[in-house]
Design brief:
Layout lengths: L3 E6 L8 H13 L3 E7 L1 H8 L9 E5 L10 H7 L4 H10 L5 E4 L3 H12 L9 E7 L5 E5 L11 H15 L7 E5 L10 H12 L4 E6 L11 E3 L2 H26 L3 H9 L1 H10 L7 E5 L4 E5 L5 H16 L2 H12 L3
Parallel strand pairs: 1-2, 1-4, 2-3, 4-11, 6-9, 7-8, 7-9
Antiparallel strand pairs: 5-6, 5-10, 10-11
Helix pairs in contact: 1-11, 3-5, 4-5, 6-12
Length: 338
Amino acid sequence: MKQNIIAIDVMGGDNAPYETIKGSIDAINENKDIKLILVGKEDIINQELQKYQYNKEQLIVQNATQVIETTESPTSAIREKKDSSIVVGLKLLKEEKAKAFVSAGSTGALLTGATVIIKRIKGVERPALATLIPNANNGYTFLIDSGANMDCKPSYLPNFAKMGKIYMENIMKINNPKVAIVNVGSEKEKGDTFTKEAYELLEQTKNINFVGNIEGREIPAGEADIVVCDGFVGNVILKLSEGIVKTFSQVVKKEITSNILYSIGGVLSKGAFKNIKKKFDYAEVGGAPFLGLKSLVVKAHGSSNAKAIKSAINQCYKFIESDIATKIENAILEDNNL
């Protein structure tokens, strides 16, 4: 039986280890082609596993005695905590004992560790964090970079676009996806020095469908399939989107319960509201891959529940099955004549 081995950081995230373990069990119970390595404090993991029924052949426990906290310096933590769940998990990936690694822990430590241990694909200046954002076209817009690189060079963005294209074509099945760069206006002349230089480079980049600038308000409308920007701007867009969705849900709920007629309408519209909530629920996607590394590393949301962990594992399965890492590497090498 073919199995895709995925390592899971059981100790990272607000709801670890319990929701992480539950999501992992749900994933293997639904897909017999997945095998997981749960990385963390084995006594805690083994005790929690006693609550579940699952195929023992699909799960391995890998002990890791240390945990990297989000408040720690990423560089120091990776260097000093060699037996942390993040470092041990990344080493499993490097040693090809796993094909992917998922963590809801420190983003900085995960990126630092992945860059040092896994290494970048030749020709990629910086790995990028890429997030799927729901749009009005009943699909998703791929936002790159959504928080890995706070300070970017214009030359990073063409690689972001190339990697995003491969992901969207193979995972989301979008042919020749439209690529846009975040700006304050649609005109080519708009923006700061960074944006203008990046625009010129994207225009010259072969094998991508570059459509120019995109304003923030056009992103949720689905005007582009891939949106590239520096990590600072991308993270602001991502966090603002999450905040708007959460606030909108709270406002709607408050209004519906404000009088009896609205409440009746709310009951009648319950199915529609449920579908909308599901579409904008980050747990449906599960995590954001770091594109540009030699192997797959996925950053799950810090507050991931079991559903989000299961979704992240399923995303890894699709990524591995489509051999995205190899396709990205081949595309970068070919375009750079390396």
